[in-house]
Amino acid sequence: MAKLTIDGKEIEVPDGTSLFDACREARGEALPHFCYHPDLSIAGVCRLCQVEVEGMPKLTIACNTTVRDEMVVHTRSERVTKSAQQILEMHLINHPVDCPICDQAGECGLQDQYMQYGLYDSEVEIDDKVNKAKAEVIGPQVILDKERCVLCSRCVRFCDEVTGTSELGIFNRGNRAEIGTAPGVELDNNYSLNTVDICPVGALTSRDFRFQKRVWMLKAANSVCPGCATGCNVRIDHEAGRIYRLKPRYNPEVNGRWMCDKGRMEYKAVHADNRLNEPRFKGETGRWADLKTELSSRIEGGVGLVVSSAHQSLEEMFLLKSLAAGGAVCGGLAGSDMSEGDDLLLNADRTPNRKGLALLGLGEMDGAALAAAVKNASGTVLINGGNPATDSDVAKALQAHGKVIYLGTHDNETAAVADMVLPGAAWAEKAGIFVNKDGRLQAFSQSVARQGSGREDWRILSELGGDEALTSLKLVREAVASALELSAGLSAETNLNKLPARGLALEGVTAGGDD
Ligand code: SF4
Ligand code: SF4
Ligand code: FES
Hints:
Bound molecules: iron/sulfur cluster, FE2/S2 (inorganic) cluster
Radius of gyration: 27 Å
Strand content: 15-25%
Helix content: 10-25%
Oligomer: single chain
Distance between the termini: 40 Å
Mean pLDDT: 92
Low-confidence stretches: 510-515
Largest sheet: 7 strands, mixed
Shape: elongated
Number of strands: 23
Strand order of the largest sheet: 15-14-20-19-18-16-17
């Protein structure tokens, strides 16, 4: 361990700790910085994190310095503050200061550092600045404004060290130096939008989010990405019932600080034109008030088959299964929503909860087996989520069966052949639990209001089952916990209503959803 004094405060940190991290611990906040990033190599190029170390003649950058025992460090001395101010001014010499039209305004490192450390009047006239390319499309997701770049090289290091794709580089020298791609190369990898997140200024912006919303108007809600079996932790940025973007949320057990570009677009399905907004009985728009009457004729022969989906929450799978009574159960169409994965985060299984199906013993069926199960079902077929009718045999069997209830979110092939269609809630419109590919239970919460007259699936399923005991999601979770305690070895103390922020890893979960 090394003992050192930072701004008069004595602290002890493990040998090998960077002075940057030690200063963060002592100050309770990070030193000003652009180039340092905890998950990238040290570049030491922005010089903003300079501190004064007693016994050293010059200021030193903290990110590239390792602590030594007995070090005495000053981070707020006049010399340090003056230096930070001068370095900021240098970074701003050629900056266009076009904050009013910059998407990064409100969450910009340059704005923040200037307000905290800068506060000088620039001596450089706008007309004297070096002009560079603006709004250059450098890939399918990202736009580059070269004038705003502070050459911190975070984006370059991300492509070199995280994705290994090396699309970006720094070209030219002096005040002509700029970020760019080599001729014929695009910033086109599964994780390109992470460069936008880590760019401390508005040099890299998202083509999807560009000019959509001023960031200070957005509200944030924590969630879990439904895009694949990895279950990256995300933040949903929304306003007035509309989701504008997804950002990765730090979870070292799952996704670290990253997420894939595909996952970022998952919010679009919530606002898709083909969302189911009203109940439909025999093809006609209906009312929830008539549900009981409509149900009585359809469900009198009992439920012959329930079909879940790996897109549903654990609670919904559990409730649906309990509705089967003596009927057959199915987890959905086997092999549906499988695609290509990669070695970083994106999983080939593009569903968030296939492991949940396995935990609850809801086995999937291939098209022929599911079509046969539909034919053999003597009572109603109840489908929650997914789209099993993409298989033509299943579609034909459902059509012929007649008594089919589909509780889903989007108008699709299955809704088209269902006799009764009930609009459920999309992932961002409800709370639930997904079990990721490694058997980690992760809770997500509602961030936006439901569309149309859609309802939470667990409420509809409880109503369909007439189960008066399960009147809240809390009670449903308690019932799920009891079931899992018996079948999956969940500890009796586990409270599914209070899962840890980083999720709960189930031991020994092996069935389904592997890489
Ligand atoms: S584009 Fe952004 S992340 Fe890349 S070097 Fe410039 S400022 Fe840094
Ligand atoms: S890797 Fe999977 S879970 Fe993570 S962001 Fe991408 S789609 Fe979502
Ligand atoms: S953060 Fe230390 S030199 Fe940039």
